[in-house]
Backbone:
């Protein structure tokens, strides 16, 4: 990435936040749950509804895509209300752009589709050595996304058409150099400042709250001192391993599988060959290729007359710089390691033979097969455990969907107990205590799965102790639970939390004293600037923060500096207060021509992104896009806790 980007990461994040990234905060869980239960329309674009089911399916797909890209990503973040709402906004955007593409009659030709598929790195990896697409793996790729190859290509065609809606604007964005320089010079202006910190920690030792003050704070802020709701539960899990337990493979099937796959299961044949290569690129002029062919033919005749001279001839004449010093030796390799013409020739030869000329994209090869490793066929008894495991896995995968339907219906139809479905499918009923809606630190697996916990703590599960629905907690894994005991959230006794109360009271009082002292000093120094006693000055800017805390840096760079020196007071919350003296303003250092060009290009990207967002806003109005699901909001309880922290 550009040096500019590395230097200005914080700035880019700020601008991206302002221009592109929507702001999401925690979503009220009650309204969110009610919305899901209704299953109603959650958005509308051009008179067409987006249903709750479509939203759920889109978010599931998005979460799976992100998990595939970032396996270590916390699953709770993916299923949080703000993440779900982000998916809905993305879904609305896709619908708006799709309707715009249709309205503007933007289509994708077969040639454009083919070119895009050829350029796709994932699809390129499916090509065989001869350049042909491995259709079986291509079908598997499409199937992994729940589509046929035709459906996959239709989606790509649609995406390319939709992309044209914005490309006309974002692909032609520009900003005049003069305008960019004015904005960038102002943005990266430098200021010399002095900072006086009034830290809460410096005042904490002066505070010794009375017992009555602690008790009063405790009574006024009881939500801060609550033990979370918790439950004892029982649950069952259906996965491939549990399905396997009910599968037995008869001896005849095991032996039949062995007979059909013995060679493959025993190992892979490897061959060792040496070659002499005369280079001739596939796109070289015909005359050059013929010249290379003639030279290779001469060498072929030479080694045919004296086979034992092959290594010496290869050392002197082969143009494969990797193998020539070794007499053309390529060591052992299996099928799939070489280009197809070379591989086909090698695996058709007998040991000691020298091939005819073999033509490939690299040129002309003369090959000598020097050795081969044929794996010893292993006996049925040796391979039996692996064969049985393979067949059980295959049958379990085929049977899982059928068993999952029985599981899903069973936990719903007999909702007062998990025993019937457990007995029917031979599943173990597991138990857990002290389960909380938000898993405690260190908890992993199913009891940390956000979807499962949401189902366990749903109102119906709490009030009526009914089975939860079957929840998909992982690929090929369903779980259902039932609450056996529930303890509501409760305020802890004062005696148990006294130390925490005292710490909070001292922190709040210390912050008040620090702020009071800072405000008094600010007033005094404004009236008599010469009386200000402050630390040494530093020069700061948006790209040179000098490790200054962001709240201070932002306040300093936004402050009115028309009359200098200028003083700014900055509340720092629980940390205390800061007073900053702005001594002088300094222009942005003149960048080099290369840096200036790079910075202008980055500014153009910012500007174009802003124009693109504004254009999307116009399209939303034109196609009457409406989000009916409530935007995530911070609950009052959460806000008070955050404020206290």
Residues:
């Amino acid at each position: 990435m550009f040096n500019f980007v590395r230097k200005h990461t914080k700035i880019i994040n700020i601008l991206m936040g302002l221009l592109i990234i929507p702001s999401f905060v925690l979503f009220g869980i009650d309204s969110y749950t009610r919305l899901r239960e209704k299953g109603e329309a959650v958005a509308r674009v051009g008179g067409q509804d987006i249903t709750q089911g479509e939203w759920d399916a889109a978010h599931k797909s998005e979460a799976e895509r992100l998990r595939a890209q970032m396996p270590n990503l916390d699953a709770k973040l993916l299923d949080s209300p703000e993440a779900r709402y982000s998916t809905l906004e993305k879904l609305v955007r896709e619908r708006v752009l799709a309707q715009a593409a249709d309205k503007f009659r933007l289509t994708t030709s077969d040639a454009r589709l083919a070119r895009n598929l050829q350029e796709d790195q994932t699809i390129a990896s499916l090509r065989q050595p001869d350049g042909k697409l491995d259709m079986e793996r291509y079908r598997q790729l499409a199937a992994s996304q729940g589509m046929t190859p035709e459906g996959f290509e239709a989606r790509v065609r649609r995406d390319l058409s939709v992309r044209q809606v914005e490309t006309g604007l974002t692909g032609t964005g520009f900003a005049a150099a003069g305008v960019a320089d004015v904005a960038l010079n102002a943005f990266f202006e430098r200021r010399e400042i002095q900072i006086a910190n009034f830290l809460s920690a410096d005042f904490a030792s002066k505070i010794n709250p009375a017992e009555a003050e602690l008790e009063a704070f405790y009574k006024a802020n009881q939500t801060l001192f609550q033990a979370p709701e918790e439950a004892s539960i029982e649950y069952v899990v259906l996965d491939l391993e549990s399905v396997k337990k009910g599968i037995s493979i008869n001896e005849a099937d095991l032996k039949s599988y062995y007979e059909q796959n013995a060679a493959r299961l025993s190992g892979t044949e490897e061959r060792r060959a040496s070659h002499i290569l005369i280079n001739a690129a596939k796109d070289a002029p015909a005359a050059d290729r013929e010249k290379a062919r003639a030279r290779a033919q001469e060498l072929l005749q030479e080694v045919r007359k004296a086979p034992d001279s092959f290594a010496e001839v290869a050392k002197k004449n082969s143009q494969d710089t990797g193998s020539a010093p070794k007499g053309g030796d390529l060591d052992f390799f299996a099928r799939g390691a070489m280009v197809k013409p070379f591989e086909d020739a090698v695996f058709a030869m007998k040991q000691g033979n020298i091939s005819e000329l073999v033509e490939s994209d690299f040129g002309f090869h003369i090959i000598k097969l020097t050795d081969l490793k044929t794996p010893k066929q292993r006996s049925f008894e040796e391979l039996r455990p692996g064969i049985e495991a393979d067949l059980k896995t295959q049958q379990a995968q085929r049977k899982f969907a059928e068993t999952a339907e029985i599981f899903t219906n069973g936990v719903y139809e007999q909702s007062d107990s998990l025993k019937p479905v457990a007995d029917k499918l031979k599943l173990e009923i597991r138990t857990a205590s002290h389960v909380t809606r938000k898993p405690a630190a260190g908890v992993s697996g199913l009891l940390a799965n956000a979807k499962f916990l949401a189902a366990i703590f749903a109102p119906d599960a709490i009030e009526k102790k009914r089975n939860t629905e079957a929840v998909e907690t992982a690929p090929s894994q369903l779980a259902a639970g039932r609450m056996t005991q529930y303890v509501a959230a409760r305020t802890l006794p004062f005696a148990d939390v006294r130390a925490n109360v005292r710490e909070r009271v001292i922190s709040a009082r210390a912050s008040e004293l620090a702020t009071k002292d800072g405000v008094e000093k600010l007033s005094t120094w404004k009236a008599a600037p010469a009386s200000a006693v402050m630390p040494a000055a530093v020069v700061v800017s948006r790209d040179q923060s000098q490790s200054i805390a962001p709240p201070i840096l932002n306040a300093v760079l936004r402050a009115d500096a028309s009359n200098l020196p200028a003083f700014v007071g900055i509340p720092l919350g629980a940390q205390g207060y800061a007073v900053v003296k702005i001594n002088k303003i300094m222009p942005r250092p003149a960048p080099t021509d290369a840096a200036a060009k790079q910075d202008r290009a980055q500014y153009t990207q910012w500007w174009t992104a802003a124009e693109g967002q504004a254009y999307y806003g116009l399209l939303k109005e034109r196609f009457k896009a409406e989000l009916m699901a409530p935007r995530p909001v911070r609950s009052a309880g959460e806000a008070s806790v955050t404020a206290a922290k």
